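Morning F.,

Quick status update on the modeling queue. The single chain you submitted on Monday has been processed. Sequence for confirmation:
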Amino acid sequence: MFSKKIEFINDVDFENPSDSNKDNIYEINLKADDGQMHVTKKIEIHLLDDNDNPTKLNFDGSTIDENLLVDTLIGTFSTVDQDVNETFTYSFVSGFGSEDNSSFKISDNKLISNEVFDHETKSKYNFRVRSTDSGGLFVENNYEVIINKIDR
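Structure tokens below.
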């Protein structure tokens, strides 16, 4: 028995297909020849997507006015990931910048206040969040929320 390995000449990337019709199905014609007879067979190679790491965690909020009710929306999270149609879960984690995690709650991709903030008591809060994709890969970042002083 004789065997050979089939390899791509160039790297292939599921998110950026290089096959002729961009569907991640690569067609080859394989010919076996023993010197007396030969057979040719068309083979399709279906490229499957590996789970890629999320690369960036974004947060669009940075301030909240003092004296607002608990459960006030502060901002939303979004995650950059090479995988198409990926879903993410957001959670607090310990580590650098996590000292005020308990002052907030996360609902879906939203950061919500978990207390009534008072600028005179404390004007800056830090929290640390992890974004986890459906395959268990994650990215983390820490953020600061500034409490705006409101004169009333």
